[in-house]
Amino acid sequence: MRMGLKIKDALKIFPELQKYIKNGKLDFSNREARILYNKAVVKAVFGIEIEYHPKGLITPPISRYIFLKTFLRGGEKVLEIGTGHSALMAIIAAKLFNCEVWATEISEEFFEYAKRNIERNKVQVKLIKSRGEIIKGLIPEGETFDVIFSAPPYYEKPTKGVLTAIEAVGGGKYGEEFSLRLLKESMDYLTPGGKVSLFLPDKAPLLNVVTEEGEKMGYKVRDIKFKAGTRIRHSLIFTI
Length: 240
Ligand SMILES: C[S@@+](CC[C@H](N)C(=O)[O-])C[C@H]1O[C@@H](n2cnc3c(N)ncnc32)[C@H](O)[C@@H]1O
Prior knowledge:
One of its GO terms (biological process) is rRNA base methylation. By secondary structure, the protein is α/β, with parallel strands linked by helices. Helices cover 34% and strands 23% of the residues. Strand 4 (100-105), helix 5 and strand 5 (125-129) form a beta-alpha-beta unit.
């Protein structure tokens, strides 16, 4: 599969991108330009149609695919915590990896966007609205998954501008609290041999505390580092 998309090819899909091009370069600092370019990428590369929430986080789609590729083989029963408005990972897991997908989202508005994106792409995703729960009290007891994955909120406190608080704040000293609660609750929802995978940034204190606390819970941890555009990302994979 070809990963990425030339600007001239993106233009064929969304001619309105033209107004954000200067000297052959796309102005990625412009939010509308990023939205249009990402829509073109998901359409051309994955055959997926996404509508982005006007205020939500706009994430590079290829990084999400690479992350999924670090732990999915195809056909697994999976649970995603926090689809965001795009629901792109849940849709890719269902459409490209043939997974049976369950997914949750806490924000009312993102949930509605996620639902429409799932419907628009005609994939089966069981989308569940969280009211503050992560897994316990939300996913029926006895339900188990081969993989539970998430791009969790991971900032220690609200950041200026880029993300809304619900997308961003993981809590704890290094932003680890959300991830640790997810890991703890996952224990009762994994099939034998099942795993949890977290998409995390390249921040050593955060990675270290999540790894150490995960090990204390009884997980074995593997860290797969990858480059997405200019950024280093980590797929932390936890197995029992
Ligand atoms: C960093 S964003 C990731 C969004 C998307 N999955 C992605 O990869 O771009 C985290 C998402 O988790 C959602 N979220 C936060 N707390 C949650 C909870 N308790 N249950 C479900 N979703 C939650 C946020 O609203 C946000 O959409």
